[in-house]
Amino acid sequence: MTTAVSVSLADLNSAVAERSTGRLQAIIIGSSDVKLSGVAALASATRSDLAFLANPLYRADALTSRAGAIVLNAADRDALQSQSAPLTASLTAMAVCEQPYAWFAYAAQILNPEDSVKAGIADGAHVADSARIHPSARVDAGATIAEGAGIGAGAWIGAGAVIGARTVIGDAARIYPRAVVLDDCRIGARCIVHSGAVIGSDGFGFAPLDGRYIKIPQVGAVVIGDDVEVGANTTIDRGAMGDTIIEDGVKLDNQVQIAHNCVIGAHTVIAGCVGIAGSTRIGKGCRIGGAAMIGGHLQIADGSSIGPATPVPSSVTEPGHYTAFFPLMKHREWERAAAVLRNLPELRSRVRQLEAEHKAVELKPGK
Amino acid sequence: MTTAVSVSLADLNSAVAERSTGRLQAIIIGSSDVKLSGVAALASATRSDLAFLANPLYRADALTSRAGAIVLNAADRDALQSQSAPLTASLTAMAVCEQPYAWFAYAAQILNPEDSVKAGIADGAHVADSARIHPSARVDAGATIAEGAGIGAGAWIGAGAVIGARTVIGDAARIYPRAVVLDDCRIGARCIVHSGAVIGSDGFGFAPLDGRYIKIPQVGAVVIGDDVEVGANTTIDRGAMGDTIIEDGVKLDNQVQIAHNCVIGAHTVIAGCVGIAGSTRIGKGCRIGGAAMIGGHLQIADGSSIGPATPVPSSVTEPGHYTAFFPLMKHREWERAAAVLRNLPELRSRVRQLEAEHKAVELKPGK
Amino acid sequence: MTTAVSVSLADLNSAVAERSTGRLQAIIIGSSDVKLSGVAALASATRSDLAFLANPLYRADALTSRAGAIVLNAADRDALQSQSAPLTASLTAMAVCEQPYAWFAYAAQILNPEDSVKAGIADGAHVADSARIHPSARVDAGATIAEGAGIGAGAWIGAGAVIGARTVIGDAARIYPRAVVLDDCRIGARCIVHSGAVIGSDGFGFAPLDGRYIKIPQVGAVVIGDDVEVGANTTIDRGAMGDTIIEDGVKLDNQVQIAHNCVIGAHTVIAGCVGIAGSTRIGKGCRIGGAAMIGGHLQIADGSSIGPATPVPSSVTEPGHYTAFFPLMKHREWERAAAVLRNLPELRSRVRQLEAEHKAVELKPGK
C-alpha cells in the first residue's frame, strides 16, 4: 500500500536526481512549480499527474494529454515542439532527459511512497521463541515464524506468511500475505516476495528402481540476493545437494517455476509462466519472455534474450535473441500446414529427387 | 460443500424453469414422479440419479443406463425410441428439451444446493476494527480482513483467506480458503475465488537503467464484475496506472496468469494454465484454450476462439478459431521434421531454383 | 527438515539393504569404516560425504573427488581402476552395485532422516471438535482442520495448511505449510503435499446458454493413493461427477494442473508446469516432460513418454517417446522459417507441379 504525496516538478526533479545518485536529471521546460501528486497514462492524466512518453508512437497522445507534466527525451520534445502552437500549449511542463522511463520510475516511487512499516508483532502472529525479529520489523496476524528464523530491520512479514526454521529475511524485505519461505533459506535485503510464492520446496528428485521412484532428500537450500522480486505463486525449489541461487537484482514475474540447483544470474528478468528445469544456469542480464520453457542442465549465455512461448532444449552459448513457437493461423490453415509439416522429410526427398532428375535432363540435350 | 436433496422429476422441471426464468422447460416422458437426489454419468448412474445425453456418441450408454431420468434433446430421444422396446424399457423417464446440458446444469445445482452460509466471524479470524462485515456474512478461522475492507451480504471468507485494506467483496461471493485479494480491489456479487488465487499482486513493471531494473509502483487495482469465477492458484495483477478489469460472467480456470492492465471482456472463458501479458484486451464471449499464451498490448476480437497451447503474438482482429502448436510426433520423426524445419527457407530456395531451371529447360526444346 | 547423522560405509550398506528389503546391496572396495554424515556432488564432496557416479560423463570428476565414498556400478569402477594409481588413490572407498543411483537415494535418506514428528496440536491451530487427529500426529500453528476430518498416525499438518470437512489424511503423510486439501478428499499414506498445492478445487464445468455460462456443481472428490508426492502450487480439481484419481506412487512436480475426473496411473512421474485437461486417463509408469500440455478426454498408454513443452491433442495408444515443439532458432531465422511454414501447403503444391511438369518434359525427348 502506498500513500500519494504532492510535490512540485522542480522538487521532483531534485528528488529523482538524489535517488539515482545523480545519474538522472531532467531539464524542465514550462512551469516547474506545477504540483504533482500521482502518475497516469498520457490519455487519462489530469493536471496533478505526471505522465511519460517513451515511445514515439504515442506522440499524438502527448500532444492532447492534460497531464501536469510529461517526461520525455530530447527527440520527442523536438517532435512535439515542431507541432503547431495551439497543441503544444496544452502541455503545462516537460521534463526532458535521456532516460525518461527510468526518470519516470523513480518519480513514480517518490509520488507513491510505500507506507512506512509499523514495527511490531501483531496479535495472532505465531512466532517461535528462538526467532529473532528486529524491533523495527513488522509481523502481521496469522503469519508464522519458525525456530531460529531471523527477520531484518524494517522487514515486513504479511498476513499468513510462513517463514521456516533458521531462514533469514533481509533488511527492508517485504514478504506479502501467504508467501512461504521454507527452512534454511536466505532472502536478501529489499527483496519483495509476492503472495502465494513458495521458496524452498523440495526439488523433484527421484531414483527409479523396479518401476517405482525413490525420493532423494533435497538437502540444499535457496539463496536469494538483494533487490530481487519474486512474483505471485512463483515457486523456487531448494537444491538437491548445494543451493538454488538467485543473484542480486533478478526480477521474477508470477507463476515462474525454478527447479533445484538452478542459478539465475544477476539482473536477469523472467516474465510470467516461465519454467526452468533443474541445474540450469541462466546468465546475467538475460531477458526471458513469458511462458518460455528452459530445459535442465543447460547454460544460457549472459545477455541472452529468449522470446515468449519458446522452448529451449539446449544451451545458448552465443548471446542473441532466440525464438521458437508455431506461428498463429486460422485453425483450418493450421491443419493444412501441420499435415505438410508431418511429412517435411518426404517433401525434402522429393525436391532432392527433382534436382537429381533435373540435372539428368539438363545434361541430355547437351550430349 | 453441498447437501443432496430429493426431488421428483416433475418438481425438478419446475424448479429449472423457475431458475432459468422460464427459458428452460422440458417435456417429461415416462414417470414424472421418479425421485432424484443426485447426478451421475450415464454409465454409473443409479435409480436416484439424473444423467444427461448431450452428445450422440453416448446414445448406447443412454440405452443401458440405470439412471432414474435422462435429460436429452428431441433428436436423441427419437433415436433412442426407434430402438427395440426391451432397451428403451430400461429408461424410467426422459426430460426432453432443446438445451439438455443447460437444463442439467440448473438441475444439478438444485439437487446439490450450496450449504447456506452460517453467518458470523469465527474465533481465530483476524478482522480489523474498521472492516465492515455484513451480519449475514461468514468469516472462517485464520482469515484476515484488513482495515476498511467490506464484506457483502451472505459472502463467505474461507479459512486463511486474506482480504486487503479497503477491498470490497460483493454479496454472496465465496472466497475459498487461502485465496488472497490484496488492497483496494473490488470483487463483484456471486463471484467465486478458489483457493490459492492471488488478486491484486503487483504488475511486472520495471524501467531498465545501466543494466539494472527500477521498480515502477503499481498504483492501479483489480476490478472484477459479477458472477466471475477465478480458479485455484490463478493470479491477476493490479494495474500499473489504471485498473486490471475482469468483466461480468468471466470464467477463469486454474493457474491462469493475467498481467497488469488487461481487460477481459464479459462472458469470456479461459481454460487452465493460460498466460496473458500486460495491457491486452480480450473481447467479450471469447474462448481461450488451455495453456494458450497471449502477448502484451494486443486486442482479441469479441467472440474469438483460441486453441489450446497456442501462442498469440499479435492482435486477432477477425473472429474465428485460431491454432498454433507443433503436431505430435514420435520423437525420431520429430527430430527429422525439425531438422528440415530449420532449413525451410533453403528448401523453398531450392524449389524456386528448380522452377526457374525447369522453365529454361521447357523453353529450350521449343526454340 | 532433516538432521544429519554419522554412519560408517559398512553400516550404511546394511541399512540400504534393509530399507530396500534386500534388493540393493553394494560391494565395498577400500575403507568400509569411513564415517559418512552427508551427501554431495562429486566435485564439492568432502571426506565425510557420500557421492555418486551414475553417468560415465562424470568419471573425471570421480577421479579427483574428495568424497569419503562413491557409489557406482561395475563398469564405472573398472574404468576408474584402469586409471593410473595416483588418481585412484584419492578415492577412500567405493560402493559398487548395479543400481548406484537408487542405492544413493536410500543412503541419502538414511544420512538425512526426516525429523520425527513431535505429536500434538499447536496453540493457534484451528481444529473442529468433530475432527479426529491421531495422537501421534502433529498440527502446526495457523492450520485449520474442518469438521469430520481425519488425520492419520504420524501425519504432519504444516503451518497454515487447510484440511477440509470429512477429508482423510493418511498415516505418515506430510502436508506442508499452506497446502490446501478441500472437503471430502482422501490422501494416502506417506504422501507429501508441498506448500501452496490445492487439492479438491472445483473442476471447470459450465453449460453455455444464451452467451452466458451456468455452473455445474462439482460433486466428485479427489482420491490420492499411497506414496504420492504433489509439488508446490500444483492444483488437482475435484471430479464433476465421480472422482479425480491419482494412483499409488505418482510424483507430481510444481505448478502441475490436473483437471476434473482425470486418472493418473500408478508410478507415473509428471514434471513441472504440465497441464492435463478434464477426463483424461494417463497410464501407469508414464513420464511426462515439463510444460507438456495434454488435452481432455484422452487416453495415454501405459509406459508412454511425452517430451517437454509438447502439446498432446489426441490419444497416445502406442507407447513410445513423443515430442512436439518448434526447434530453437535465432529470432531472424525463426521469422524466415515461420514465413515459409505459413505457406507450406503452397510449397508442396509447387513441388507437385514441378513433378508433373518434369514427367512431361522427361517424356517428350523419348517420343
Describe the overall structure.
The structure is a homotrimer of 367-residue chains. Chain A has 3 domains: 7-111, Udp-n-acetylmuramoylalanyl-d-glutamate--2,6- Diaminopimelate Ligase, Chain: A, domain 1 (3-Layer(aba) Sandwich), CATH 3.40.1390; 120-322, Hexapeptide repeat proteins (UDP N-Acetylglucosamine Acyltransferase, domain 1, 3 Solenoid), CATH 2.160.10.10; 331-366. In chain A, α1 crosses α5. The first copy, chain A, has 367 residues and is an alpha/beta fold. Chain A has 7 helices and 40 strands. At the A-C interface, β22, β23, β38, β39 and α6 of A face β4, α5, β40, α6 and α7 of C.
Topology (elements, then pairings):
Three copies of one chain form a homotrimer.
Chain A: E1 7-8, H1 9-19, E2 27-30, E3 35-36, E4 38-39, E5 49-52, H2 59-64, E6 69-72, H3 74-81, H4 85-88, E7 93-96, H5 100-111, E8 120-121, E9 126-127, E10 132-133, E11 138-139, E12 144-145, E13 150-151, E14 156-157, E15 162-163, E16 168-169, E17 174-175, E18 180-181, E19 186-187, E20 192-193, E21 198-201, E22 206-209, E23 212-215, E24 222-224, E25 229-230, E26 235-237, E27 244-246, E28 251-252, E29 257-258, E30 263-264, E31 269-270, E32 275-276, E33 281-282, E34 287-288, E35 293-294, E36 299-300, E37 305-306, E38 311-312, E39 321-323, E40 329-330, H6 331-342, H7 344-366
Parallel strand pairs in A: 4-5, 5-6, 6-7, 8-11, 9-12, 10-13, 11-14, 12-15, 13-16, 14-17, 15-18, 16-19, 17-20, 18-21, 19-24, 20-25, 21-26, 24-27, 25-28, 26-29, 27-30, 28-31, 29-32, 30-33, 31-34, 32-35, 33-36, 34-37, 35-38, 37-39
Antiparallel strand pairs in A: 1-3, 2-7, 22-23
Helix pairs in contact in A: 1-5
